[in-house]
């Protein structure tokens, strides 16, 4: 990263991310105390409180602050998007989905607690997300009920048959099939970008953003959601060539569509550059200081090395 002109450098950004993530971790811990039935709550807490970069909640808080809201107004939706994310990881790892035994370097939820508890824990995390927004925004908080309702609608759309569930079903149906660029993009827009988009949009809504501001933030977040996947695919190629003679990267070894496979490595890099430029352009008309965390987040996703 080049030093920037906004007086908010990369160290400030790292500190911003870390301090917001710490506040979110505390809020999530409070939102989900260990109570009866213990096994269900243990399973929920296992996946909610064990690491994770907290990118979605930080996006919600940064978008809220961008439009003049404060961290307290964003707190319920910030927790909600991480609850939804945790649910999606638990369900994604199930034997009937991706059938992964490991998540974040630990046994996946269903390996630790059994499939039926993991399934119910995912369902309960999802339900708690919506309960948390409804209670947090309306229970004497600083957010008008009308904004909380809009956030609930946004989040519901992002999770359901036009969002995560749609991306997952198309992804599962594409296994072993020849996947073109349009299908690859559909999967990533729905499985990954849509929840990042909803996080930022919900933050902007509860922060009191105008319709134009909310839509600009939506386009920003959609770009960085796709950018996340394109860069991931490019890094897999880089890692694989670094390991030449050892083992190939997982996506190259597996028969799976990726941006470098469909566009070539230079094409994928050019697409990433286009996405980060489009994301940053959406921030141009906001106050530069308030936009600085989101500008850094876009660059961080674009230029990360692992
Ligand atoms: C049950 C309605 C319903 C929907 C669930 C299982 C499913 C449908 C969707 C899968 C969604 C999924 C797991 C997408 C992958 C998203 C992704 C890029 C995860 C990694 O995100 P990071 O890097 O992870 O932010 P950390 O660990 O940092 O939190």
UniProtKB/TrEMBL annotation:
Presence of the UniProt keyword Transferase in the record: yes
Keyword Acetylation on entry: no
Annotated signal sequence range: none
Pathway given in the UniProt record: Isoprenoid biosynthesis
This protein's UniProt keywords: Isoprene biosynthesis, Magnesium, Metal-binding, Transferase
Top-level lineage group: Eukaryota
Example of a GO cellular component annotation carried by this entry: cytoplasm
Names of required cofactors: Mg(2+)
GO molecular function term, any single one: prenyltransferase activity
A biological process term (GO) from this entry: isoprenoid biosynthetic process
Family statement: Belongs to the FPP/GGPP synthase family.
Protein name as annotated: Geranylgeranyl pyrophosphate synthase 7, chloroplastic-like
